[in-house]
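Good morning C.,

I know you're traveling, so I'll keep this short. The sequence:
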Amino acid sequence: MNLDEKLRDIVAYAYEHAPAVRARFEAAELTPADIQTTADLVRLPILSKDELIALQQANPPFGGMLGVPAREVTRIYMSPGPIYEPAPEPTDTAWDMAVAVLRGGGFTADDIVLNTLSYHLVPAGLLLDEALLRVGATVVPSGYGNTDLQVKLLRDLGVTGYVGTPSFLAHLLQRAEELGLNVRRDLKLNKVLVSAEPLPPSLRQKFADEYGLAVCNTYATAELGLLAYNTTPGLTMDLLPEPIIELVDPDTGELVGTGEVGEIVVTGFSKVYPLIRLGTGDLAINVDPLPGESVQEERQIIIVGRRGDALKVRGMFVHPTQLRFAVTQAAMMAGVYPPPAVQGVVTRPDPQRDFLTVRVATAENPALDDALRGAIQQACRVRVDAIVFVDVIDEGERMMVDGRAWD
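The tokens, ready to paste straight into the viewer:
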């Protein structure tokens, strides 16, 4: 089945079996017949994480979102909130997407893989464990922590692959060197899949250049599994074919255009836990080569952070990560190293228009001024009104400051 067919199937099923889903449809004056294609999803209001928490608190443990009898739930996980999540059924596409990402990252049946993702309360460890088994790999279910023991596992077992956070991988490799090991010579590690936190470009380059590792960087959520990944340097990540991923304006729920920032909203196909238009709270730039014509796996995203960190400037979201990326690009063009600290300040001296000032912690530099204006407009799609060079920007200061008066 294609995405539209799967969508019609899960909407009809969820409406019939999950009371909270039916209630959402009725509140929006919709029936399953109104959602025939992915384009129709915009008619249904987004379900935010806060709303999901409220549903569960009012009707524990799953808030009326469970689509099967409770006895059919095999495991229950917990995310911050708390949000309780039943494990997906064995036939859920979350497993297939995880397998696809592992294969895209070069993992094979010949690998011995250290899985350092947590196996406790969160689904990440078991999801990747099962996916690795489906690939045919041998799994070492180590979980997080016990650094010296994990270094020993890497060496004694001839581990070739790693799954976990990039920061813990960096810590492991540093500890291996402190223990007198040469990572390239003494270990067989050659490929890694990292997730659960941002991967700075400098750290990715270090993994590749210093340690000779092939890096697969992923974006995932606890509720819906892996959603996007890349295996080459850069910020863009390829979307997986499933589940349905939309990028929408958080205020209106409408789809954003290519090059614009929107909240990642996901619709899954699990009949155990049918989540339809779940707002992740994560913001990303929509990269669409053929707007209106491309299929999902032809699209890409650039993760830029969380909703609470971004500010809307003249109708466009500007996120700290976008500013950081722009100043890095501009500094390279202007020959400034290292990239200076930067801060965006939004004011409204004219009641009809936002005014964006960018503060840069370095000596006045006309070349950097010009390069930064262009880089910010390209990254954020917002024109800078003023660039001010300052002596210092304190580390504790917010990167995006809202100086507008809304009264």
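Safe travels,
E.
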